[in-house]
């Protein structure tokens, strides 16, 4: 009989919001560098671009996607689509290390089919919102941070009366991973700002966030 060696514990940190899961420093420097190289190769094929809101305002964040479908926004609204809006080409494949992370951390029975890539530089931020353009809003959302630390704001999903609770902030540093699951799947969240110069991972500074979702 072989003895069962338990897998090494993942450094999950408890949070105040049930369903908001956080693994600070999950990716070490080598894993961050390897993932960044794969992300950069994908971005060569699917260049970052600046989308506009349905109201016509440009995002401060630049975006691209990997996977069967990608999240896009323009005058026609928010949606997932199989091609890059500027090049018309299919999105590149989701990097393998991200698929492994999804399996190890979420235990969700199907893989993500969408990976949004957000690049924050300078004053870029993202307003409070809910992720709700996916077909199955019970599938988790898994998010990986690379580069400068971000001030991530999060609060509970609005209740049945539409009232939303207080938000608080968490710093997301390079290599941190977090997830919106269960009761926090529809949590309101956004990025207040970056702590500029807090990481030297990205050659031009700033922060890349990779968000894995089951969209379709
Ligand atoms: O950059 C982040 O950490 C959050 C991004 C986000 O919430 C989104 O793209 O929906
Ligand atoms: Fe989001």
TrEMBL record:
GO cellular component: cytoplasm
Domain of life of the organism encoding this protein: Bacteria
Cofactor(s) for this UniProt protein: Fe(2+)
Domain Fe2OG dioxygenase: 111-216
Residues engaged in binding Fe cation: 129, 131, 189
Keyword entries, A-Z: Dioxygenase, Iron, Metal-binding, Oxidoreductase
One example GO MF annotation: oxidative RNA demethylase activity
Xref: Gene3D superfamilies: Alpha-ketoglutarate-dependent dioxygenase AlkB-like
InterPro entries assigned: Alkb (IPR004574), AlkB-like (IPR027450), AlkB-like_sf (IPR037151), Oxoglu/Fe-dep_dioxygenase_dom (IPR005123)
Cofactor note: Binds 1 Fe(2+) ion per subunit.
GO biological process, one term: oxidative RNA demethylation
Name the record gives this protein: Alkylated DNA repair dioxygenase
């Amino acid at each position: 009989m072989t003895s069962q060696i338990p897998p090494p514990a993942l450094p999950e940190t408890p949070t105040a919001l049930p369903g908001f899961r956080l693994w600070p420093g999950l990716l070490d420097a080598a894993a961050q560098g390897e993932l960044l190289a794969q992300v950069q190769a994908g971005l060569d094929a699917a260049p970052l671009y600046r989308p506009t809101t349905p109201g016509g305002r440009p995002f401060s964040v630049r975006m691209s996607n990997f996977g069967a479908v990608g999240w896009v926004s323009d005058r026609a609204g928010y949606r997932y689509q199989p091609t890059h809006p500027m090049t018309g080409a299919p999105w590149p494949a989701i990097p393998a290390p991200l698929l492994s992370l999804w399996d190890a951390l979420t235990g969700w029975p199907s893989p993500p089919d969408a990976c949004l890539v957000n690049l924050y530089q300078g004053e870029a931020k993202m307003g409070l919102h809910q992720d709700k353009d996916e077909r199955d809003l019970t599938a988790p959302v898994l998010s990986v941070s690379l580069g400068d630390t971000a001030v991530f704001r999060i609060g509970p999903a609005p209740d049945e009366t539409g009232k939303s609770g207080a938000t608080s902030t968490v710093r997301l540093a390079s290599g941190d991973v977090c997830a919106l699951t269960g009761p926090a799947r529809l949590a309101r969240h956004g990025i207040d700002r970056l702590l500029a110069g807090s990481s030297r991972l990205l050659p031009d500074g700033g922060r890349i966030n990779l968000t894995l979702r089951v969209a379709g």
